[in-house]
Amino acid sequence: MKNRPVLNRPGRGRAIAGIFLAAVLIWCIGAATAAAGELYRAKVTVTGQGEANRILGFAACLEDVLIKVSGAQKLAGDRRLATYKSNAKDFVTAFSYRDQFFGKPVRDEQGTRDRPYDLTVDFEEGKIDDILRTFGLKPWLSHRPVLAVFVAMEQGPRKYVVTLDGAQSDLQRDALLAAGERRGMSVVLPGAAALAKSNVNGETLGTASLSTLAPIAAEQDAEAVLTGRLVWDDRQLGWATQWQIDWAGRTHRWQLRGVTFDEAFRRGIGGAAQVLSGNADTSGKGD
Question: What phi, psi does 115 have (nearest 5°)?
């Protein structure tokens, strides 16, 4: 009996192709759903696992999620959120704790109460969307551009750019990446070698053109460029910051003073998200 060349049968080939395309479609839908789900999740550090601090954590996470989902940094500190934040537990679908001191022994009963935890909170998507609608906003569920961030730091005689691989800016690097995650943005930082090749440093970044920075950003598949400058102010014991992003043919600038670099980075990346999402304009003012 002769073997049949079953693989060459047109019907079978179409069936295999159909199965493959269906699998790819299911994977894409699953990936998109997972990504959207991440937008409705936030994390905050709390002390202990008691209900009082958990309720405070829910409120902080609710504000973060509303900003993260919409891209509207202007919601930060908005007094109109007070009622929603006081009832934040009504919008929660799940939460979990991670002990920051995992593996370290508890010394006493007080140590249990004072132990820091990462509280991760998931919110119901429909309810978050409803809150945004009351503020005239909508979820930013379309593609979010990868953001290349170039930040110059100046503290006395020290002037440097935050890089992906520089030892002197490791704390700022971690804070920038954390700010990107908190605001739902994919953030990439320049490498020291790429900056040196383009003669960009803490002194020259402020005058570097977009045409100079764009090739560095493109090496990391970035689609938008955010530049910032942080100068330490001894009188205010904080950083004076300036931010700029060029998008859709417009230049947007904003600034703030007297903040930690963690807060400055959140405001910088949050302001960029606000511009990219189309939810608001930060041009010429603080966000």
Answer: -70, 135
